[in-house]
Amino acid sequence: MTYSAVGNLEQVVEKFQSFDTDCQLALLWYVYEDFGGAISQKDSTDVAGYEALDSLVPEIQQMTPEEQLQIMRDLLGRANTPINQTYGSMDTANKLAFWYRLAQSMDQKAIAQVPSNYSLSSEAEEFLQHFNQMDFDRKVIFMRNVVSQLGVNANN
Questions:
Q1: From the CB of residue 103, how many other CB atoms can be counted at a distance below 10 Å?
Q2: Which domains can be identified in the chain, with CATH numbers?
């Protein structure tokens, strides 16, 4: 996919979703490295979601690296798991904060990281270059669009 000047955000989200799960996880990590510090936790009126956020990340940190990776894969794959149901019940601000905290934990080596020998496909590299050219507001909107679609509604 060749991107126009900045591209339609819907197309950018769709392109992101077209990558396999491990590539999406790597891209989320590179996105965090690019501008993660600027998207720190936002205020949310979803108190229950915030409490869930405070318990989920430490719970995941206690798991083995293989289990941690599976949790992240399950989130992107929308598997019907208890963690995905809890995540699915959060508002978008808390979902964004959840991924931010996961990335911080990866940075601190408390969560499984992208393997040092992992390399993106040329198509994923092109996507990342495009992402890096977007302005801050569009990056935040992109991230909100991606993370808001993840999770499983426990009522379904």
A1: 20
A2: 17-148 (1.10.2090.10)
